[in-house]
């Protein structure tokens, strides 16, 4: 991937209504459970020679509605422990935005008070001007992590063998960011 000095600079903040963060995990080996997290903050800073991305999500804003007991199980101590660890955060250590629209971002993901290095890959849409004169960029990123790395190790064996919940979790973010005035 060719990475050139950026032809544009600036600080871009999240546009929440046009951004989503999701996670997906295999459930009882027959389907994939997906959920979104609604309260997302992100900041993309593009300088002449460096690019940085940081963001966080508020765990309590996970989109599970029914049944309420299931939502409480997911945000509770068996999984995210939202009362003790209310946010999941990411801070980049390197960002490569390719001339071909590819994006590779390495950094530190902190969940449940534990920080691990991850690399997310995806696409980057350079700035465009919207009908209101605002400049917007887009990032679509994803990776797969082993939830045990963050001590998300709740499990229930299936009667015929195997596990009720997959260990690998797909994380995705579709971010639309607006340049600060």
What is the CATH C-level name? Mainly Beta
Strand content: over 45%
- What is the helix content? under 10%
- If you average the pLDDT, what whole number results? 94
Can you walk me through this structure?
The chain is mainly β and 181 residues long. It is built from 1 helix and 10 strands; from the N terminus they run E-E-E-E-E-H-E-E-E-E-E. The chain has one helix at residues 68-75; strands at 10-14, 20-27, 31-37, 40-46, 51-58, 87-97, 102-111, 114-129, 135-146, 165-179. The chain has an 8-stranded antiparallel beta barrel. Strand 6 and strand 7 (102-111) form a beta hairpin. The longest helix has 8 residues, at 68-75. Residues 1-5 have low confidence and may be disordered.
What is this structure's SSE topology?
Elements: E1 10-14, E2 20-27, E3 31-37, E4 40-46, E5 51-58, H1 68-75, E6 87-97, E7 102-111, E8 114-129, E9 135-146, E10 165-179
Looking at this protein, list some descriptive labels.
181 residues, mainly beta, Lipocalin, eight-stranded antiparallel beta barrel, 4% helix
Q: Can I get a quick summary?
A:
Helices cover 4% and strands 55% of the residues. It contains one helix and ten strands, in the order βββββαβββββ.
């Amino acid at each position: 991937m060719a990475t050139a000095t950026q032809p544009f600079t600036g600080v871009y903040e999240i546009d929440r209504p046009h951004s989503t963060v999701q996670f997906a995990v295999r459930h009882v080996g027959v389907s994939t459970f997906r959920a979104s997290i609604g309260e997302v903050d992100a900041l993309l800073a593009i300088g002449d020679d460096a690019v940085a991305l940081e963001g966080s999500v508020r765990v309590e804003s996970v989109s599970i509605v029914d049944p309420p007991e299931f939502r409480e199980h997911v945000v509770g101590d068996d999984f995210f422990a939202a009362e003790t660890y209310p946010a999941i955060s990411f801070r980049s250590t390197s960002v490569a935005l390719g001339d071909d629209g590819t994006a590779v971002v390495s950094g530190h993901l902190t969940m449940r008070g534990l920080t691990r290095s991850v690399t997310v890959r995806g696409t980057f849409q350079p700035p465009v001007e919207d009908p209101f004169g605002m400049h917007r960029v887009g990032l679509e990123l994803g990776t797969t992590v082993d939830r045990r790395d963050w001590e998300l190790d709740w499990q229930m064996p299936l009667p015929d063998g195997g596990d009720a919940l997959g260990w690998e979790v797909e994380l995705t973010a579709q971010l639309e960011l607006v340049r600060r005035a």
